[in-house]
Design brief:
This protein is of the alpha+beta class. It contains 16 helices and 12 strands. The strands form 2 sheets. It has a 10-stranded mixed sheet with strand order 2-1-11-10-9-3-8-4-5-12, with helices on both faces. A two-stranded antiparallel sheet has the order 6-7. Helix 3 runs parallel beside helix 4, helix 9 crosses helix 10 and helix 11 runs antiparallel to helix 16.
């Protein structure tokens, strides 16, 4: 039976799974004692031989956020947020950077080694054809991330992607499968109102970093020119088409700005960000402005159901080999490459909270992954939930193509465990009543041969 929510939070606070942090070859290392009789990931100093009688990793389904990208906001919008000059990015707006791809590739080199140690694939040699299936959202940053994952796995079979401008699997509400109501908007607005007081300190800190917004933005929110970002009220509205909730004002801008500081911190190793004012310590002070606001919006029950049910339904059916696409059922690893919104909504539906060292709770850094693992145990099958991300300090270090191939091992937070039957009942219950994406079986896009 699954642990209670309170017990899971307590166990999560005490137990974290770690990988070797410096990109050295080696599988996963579990840093906490098991709460119940169950295998831990092996350490590098303890080579694992998979026993026919011991735990066997049967299948993994991963939901991955794309790697580091340029800001999604236009230059005009950023100029309203702060009058200081924003940095120039080496790629177009919202596009994956080369460094972002290298970091993703390096993490998946390490994940491949860890899973191989428990028999998901042979320890030596590439995974067999058909043993990996990757489905990506249609944006450049998700397609580029899919290619980086496949390079890290040493796999050349390609990935599936929809030609639709809004793939309903990753964006069911925006694709027209859900219309938000005023009741749903109000429930989310109440959560955000409580956050305003709790985040007053970090909001003031960020406002002092960014300086006054453009005068016209102050006037737009009924404030005098020269106002502070912290003075701008919050506005949560349903978009005109009814398919999205849009947060603007002080918290919305602060959330977006804090994330941009993180993206800059990862993109430019060794440099302070936020106009040279934000080092790692200060970044960790303002990051909750993004994570807590973002999760208050996307993990709220009505939003999580509208935006996450379609994807969780496909992840659950792929894990249990009940998917309409036979390629998912045959694969040892199925990967869905999407966005932080996808990870937040699926995590919210599952009631899965994670806490990795150096990150605020439930953070979704670039390239991070929510993992569903199916294990064959002596007493039956078990499903484990995990969350993987590279450490903040590792994301800030120099990296090139050559070092990416050596691998960078992520931190992995241990979540709840379920019997196979209990997990099946859970994912079906929490997705009931939510939208479903069309059952499209998409062709694979070619993947270049790994270097």
């Amino acid at each position: 039976m699954p642990l209670s929510r309170r017990s899971r939070r307590s166990h999560l606070a005490r137990c974290l799974v770690f990988l070797i942090l410096w990109g050295l070859p080696g599988p996963l290392v579990e840093a906490c004692p098991a709460q119940e009789a169950a295998p831990s990931y092996p350490g590098q100093s303890q080579p694992t031989v998979v026993s026919a009688l011991g735990p066997q990793l049967v299948r993994v389904v991963a939901l991955v956020r794309h790697g580091v990208r340029a800001p999604t906001q236009s230059a005009e919008t950023l100029a309203l947020w702060s009058q200081q000059p924003w940095p120039d990015w080496p790629v177009r707006r919202a596009h994956l950077t080369a460094r972002g791809g290298h970091l993703v590739e390096a993490m998946w080199v390490a994940l491949r080694r860890g899973w191989s140690a428990y028999g998901l694939w042979p320890v030596n040699g590439p995974p067999a054809p058909g043993s990996i299936f990757v489905r990506a959202d249609s944006d450049q940053r998700t397609r580029g991330t899919a290619r980086a994952i496949l390079r890290g796995l040493g796999h050349t079979q390609g990935y599936a992607v929809s030609d639709a401008p809004r793939d309903p699997l990753f964006h069911p509400a925006k694709a027209g499968l859900h219309v938000f109501t005023e009741v749903e908007r109000s429930s989310v607005a109440a959560r955000l109102a409580r956050l305003r007081q709790e985040l007053a300190g970090p909001l003031q800190t960020l406002a002092s970093i960014s300086g006054p917004p453009a005068p016209e933005l102050c006037v737009q929110y009924g404030r005098a020119p020269g106002c502070s970002l912290a003075e701008l009220p919050d506005r949560l509205r349903i978009t005109d088409d009814g398919h999205s909730l849009e947060l603007t004002g002080g918290l919305g801008i602060a959330s977006g700005m804090a994330e941009i500081f993180l993206l800059e911190f990862v993109q430019w190793p060794g440099q302070d960000v936020g106009w040279g004012k934000v080092d790692r310590r200060l970044l960790q002070t303002v990051l909750p402005l993004h994570g807590r606001v973002f999760n208050a919006l996307n993990r709220a029950a009505p939003v999580a159901l509208a935006r996450g049910a379609a994807l969780l339904a496909e992840m659950g059916s792929a894990l249990l080999a009940e998917h309409y696409d036979a390629r998912c059922n045959a694969a040892a690893l199925t990967v869905f490459v999407g966005h932080d919104t996808n990870l937040a909504t699926v995590g919210g539906l599952l009631g899965f909270d994670w806490q990795l060292p150096g990150w605020p709770s439930d953070s979704i850094p670039p390239g991070s992954a929510l993992l569903l693992e199916l294990w064959q145990m002596p007493e039956g099958r078990e499903v484990r939930l995990r969350f993987a991300s590279l450490p903040l300090e590792v994301l800030h270090r120099p990296l090139n193509e050559a070092t990416a191939r050596l691998g960078l091992a992520p931190l992995v937070g241990a979540g709840p465990r379920y019997t196979e039957q209990d997990f099946a009942a859970l994912y079906r219950r929490v997705t009931a009543g939510g939208p479903r994406a069309p059952q499209d079986i998409l062709p694979l896009r070619p993947q270049p041969v790994p270097r």
